[in-house]
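Below is how a single chain appears once it has passed through the pipeline. First comes the sequence as given, then the structure the pipeline wrote out for it. We keep one example in the README because the format questions we get most often are answered faster by looking than by reading.
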Amino acid sequence: MASHRRPKQPSRTRVTVLTATAAAAVALSSQAAQAAPSKKDVKSEVDKLYEQTEQATEKYNGAKEDQQKLQKEVTDLQDKVARGQGELNDLRKGLGAVASGQYRSGSIDPSVQLFLSGDPDTYLEKAATLDQLSGKQADQLKVIADKQRRLAQERAEAASKIQDLSETRRALGEKKDEIQGKLAKAQELLNTLTAKEKAALQAKENRANRSNDRVDLGHDVPASQRGAAALAAAQSKIGSPYVWGATGPSSFDCSGLTSWAYQQAGQSLPRTSQAQASAGTRIGMNELKPGDLVLFYGDLHHIGLYAGNNTVLHAPKPGAAVRYESINNMPFQYGVRV
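Resulting structure:
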């Protein structure tokens, strides 16, 4: 006998669970689609992260230079305070010896002792001597007071410098974390590429590095003998890897390369690209000669050496090596003749 019972309807709870599961599956598939950016998008985002890394690197370099300067100032002040304390201790010791001698002789206040003296004929003579002694002691006390005051000022200055040093170290740590975070994010993006896409990007980077062998630098006259020497030093480092915060001799960041190159030529430059921008006479693109510094981007966070024929020699970015590149590949700001 056929059953005429109505089919059991799914409960509302079951419908809700099924609906939610389906929605989650759609959301996950949508996220998966979004999580697979194209090679072009990845490269664009990685390049942006590398540029931000270089900006942070120059700030890190500046903070590190400030730290080194403050550390020297703190050390000098602490040495000065230590010497001052030693001098103060010697002064106190000398004055203490006089006071101890007076105490052992049973002396009391000189003016009172003379006033009670039974020999008034010698009072004036003795009074003159004691006035001189009191004056000498007063001078010693004044020297001690002045020394104590200076010492307190130097201690306060040292404490202030130590506070500045502590804040600079904290800023240094924050910049380091920022740089490492951006590099890690860039690597995560690169890891989303297929092996074939990674190989294509690496091949492009290799071609850029190999361009050093066939670059045409023209026949421009160097800016100066020192500029020529700096450029020659930088050319000897072609192929060295970019490493943030590095100043050579085996790896460099952008301002690390230029400062190292000029150091080999006998010229000291500031550490950061922004500071090096003020290391000489500002010039336009049509005035550039080999050896001149070349500044890029609005905040001047990238720098290289002009090599001739609209070509710059620089440490480009993380993952790249010191190489020649067209000056038009980056937003040129101005040149500097050291």
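The CA atoms of residues 52 and 182 lie 8 Å apart.

See the next section for the split statistics.
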